[in-house]
Amino acid sequence: MSTSTSRQIAITEYTRRDRHLVSDILFRNYNVHTHIDWQEAEKWLETPDAIIRLAWQYGRLIGVLAAAPPLGGTTWLRIAGISDNADAARVFDILWNAVHKELITRQIHLVAVLMIRDWLIPLITPHGFTCREEVITLRRADQPPLVGESLPGLTIRATQPTDLVTITQVDQAAFEPPWQLTGDEVREAARVSAYCAVALRNEQIVGYQASTMYFDGSHLARLAVSPQAQGTGVGAALLGDVIRRFSRRGVVSMTVNTQLSNTRSQHLYERFGFQRNGYDIPVWMVNL
Question: Where exactly does CATH 3.40.630.30 map onto the chain?
Answer without folding.
Answer: 3-128, 137-282
